[in-house]
Design a protein that fits this description.
Length: 352
């Protein structure tokens, strides 16, 4: 009898330890739907037969998006908060309000020997990817942001913006300098897919990436290609993926284009969740830097997959945005949180 009790107690004390041990991820994928609020998500759901990949998430929270100097953030400050863990002024990239550098989660991950990446449906010099890579006082400093990739240590970067690396006012060729650092420079998605390991910069377009459907499956396929490369590092990786043009469609108050971009991002989310379901040491975080357009839907028809869109503004709003998480550590992102808390939470989970 004593032996049975001892065994039971041993299991009793062992199980919580084992459960706790599985709650820490090795890989983290941060996915940002730029300008994506609850209405944007529901718009995609309505036109897609009342279903999205988003419904696979069971852990849900909300993020407060205000910046250091404005109730309504821009993507520079909003992305910096997520990437660097600080509230900064609008238009600033990877910097504190006093213009000192703020270290991003990708830079911290690199110090701990993890691989890192960014995949976006815009130029690699645009605000959100820049927030994870660069340190500049103004988001419009595209050439300076491009040069910051040289010192970022990032392993994979896929997007547009080739001209900011090559057709520069200072006559530097940043792609040539990246090659000298061991990077493979890809000019097409097929070239990216053919790269199974190493460091890759995919400059797929001269400037901005085309909108859906012109760009095809560029975003979901780029995300999968990045995962395949980053997966080679047994220590793990941190990857940021952005659905960039949800924001642009909402700036234009274009509900039809919004739903196209939303479904493209949702497909990308689904691909990443598929990876995380197989690789159970992967935490997936999906959120937004802010909401755009002040979208509401006062009416619609679920059977027909239609809705009435009413935009209140052409710019950003200051409302809360949702946070969806899947995988080990997901419960750390439930409830209400500051957008500047993501970095600290991820560092804690990765034992940095």
């Amino acid at each position: 009898m004593k032996k049975i009790v001892f065994t039971f107690l041993g299991l009793f004390f062992l199980l919580p330890f084992q459960i706790q041990a599985t709650k820490r991820p090795q890989n983290v994928v941060i996915m940002i739907g730029d300008g994506m609020g609850l209405a944007q998500i529901y718009a995609g759901m309505v036109v897609n037969g009342n279903h999205l990949q988003f419904e696979r998430f069971k852990s849900i929270g909300f993020s407060k998006t205000y910046s250091a100097n404005n109730f309504t953030t821009d993507s520079g400050a909003g992305g910096t908060a997520i990437a660097c863990g600080v509230k900064t002024n609008n238009y600033m990239i990877g910097m504190n309000p006093d213009s000192t550098k703020a270290e991003s989660i990708l830079e911290v991950a690199k110090k701990h020997k993890l691989s890192t990446g960014v995949v976006v449906a815009c130029a690699l010099t645009h605000a959100t990817p820049a927030d994870f890579i660069a340190h500049q006082p103004n988001r419009n400093m595209y050439e300076e942001i491009a040069a910051d990739y040289l010192n970022s240590g990032v392993d994979v970067a896929i997007g547009g913006g080739r001209k900011y690396f090559e057709e520069r006012n200072d006559d530097r060729n940043i792609t040539a300098e990246l090659k000298s650092k061991g990077y493979k420079i890809a000019s097409s998605l097929d070239e990216v897919k053919n790269q199974q390991d190493g460091k890759v910069i995919g400059l797929l377009y001269e400037d901005q990436v085309p909108a859906v459907p012109a760009r095809g499956k560029m975003l979901p396929e780029s995300a999968v290609a990045a995962l395949n490369i980053l997966d080679n590092n047994k220590k793990g990786f941190v990857l940021m993926v952005e659905g960039s043009q949800i924001d642009w469609a909402c700036h234009d108050n274009n509900a039809e284009q919004l739903t196209k971009e939303m479904l493209d991002f949702d497909e990308t989310v689904g691909k990443v969740l598929d990876y995380a379901q197989v690789h159970k040491n992967t935490l997936v975080i999906v959120t937004a830097d802010h909401e755009t357009g002040g979208l509401t839907m006062p009416g619609g028809d679920m059977k027909r997959g239609t809705f009435n869109a009413v935009f209140s503004i052409k710019g950003h709003s200051g409302v809360l945005v949702p946070v969806f998480t899947f995988g080990p550590g997901a419960d750390e992102f439930q409830g209400f949180m500051e957008n500047s808390s993501f970095k600290t939470k991820i560092e804690k989970l990765l034992k940095f």
